[in-house]
Amino acid sequence: MFPRPLTPLAAPNGAEPLGRALRRAPLGRARAGLGGPPLLLPSMLMFAVIVASSGLLLMIERGILADMKPLPLHPPSREGAAWRRALPRPGGLSLEAGDPDLQVACSNWKRLLKVLAGVLDNVDVRLKMDHRNDLVFLADLRPEEIRYRLQHYFKFLFVRDPLERLLSAYRNKFGEIREYQQRYGAEIVRRYRAGAGPSPAGDDVTFPEFLRYLVDEDPERMNEHWMPVYHLCQPCAVQYDFVGSYERLEADANQVLEWVRAPPHVRFPARQAWYRPASPESLHYHLCSAPRALLQDVLPKYILDFSLFAYPLPNVTREACHQ
Fold it and tell me: pTM score, two decimals?
């Protein structure tokens, strides 16, 4: 969340004005931000979301969209939406073009916010990321300060395919981070693995075990890395000015920096050398390897993420999994 410039935001580099672009945005992707009226009344929007979600739940119950095509090898293009249009950066500013899987971790945005606040010199400073100091969180503010920021600041949200996000969290937290292995992994193994013993290491959690854990968890009490985004970020309560996606990270981060008039030397951090994103092929493999009944139990917990942000449900029919 950035403070809005004192002067009205103009669309950069000759693009159509921001308010007009956002009003033409697809339902559920953006609202008419920066003072413009909402696309629909909240009650109408919620009704539409409920209807869409109910349809998806019915499809899950009857076979997880058996008539859908197999998972695409590349994310679908949404070039036609004006609010997603890639814009050239002034002064040669670049977001490390060429890799569509640049990391969209919140730590990168926190690093960028610290640069904008003058705490760090640049986004490439090789320091261990401090996730609390030199940052202002809404929870640290008084109610009137929170209301002011929600009304006057530029608010943006980045989303990702819900199942790809789960797979990424599973691989990273249980494959690399000892704290998560001890806090969550050991408990998951004790719950769902026969003969696990009282003190498992928690470093060998399987993906189906992780999914069973999610089925039994209350979404509102989940860890932030696998909590549904509609719970985590409250898109039906907060009027976000921009909703970007992991699949179009470069163009969307580019556009946010343009609209908040970031200095020319500020750019979104390049992906870290060690980072290996979850590919569509890897996701397809893990989903096809999991029991189908288990997926039917997991998907409803994330159904609003699918419907609000227009992500397709996976096709894990026998035909698709054997291709």
Answer: 0.69
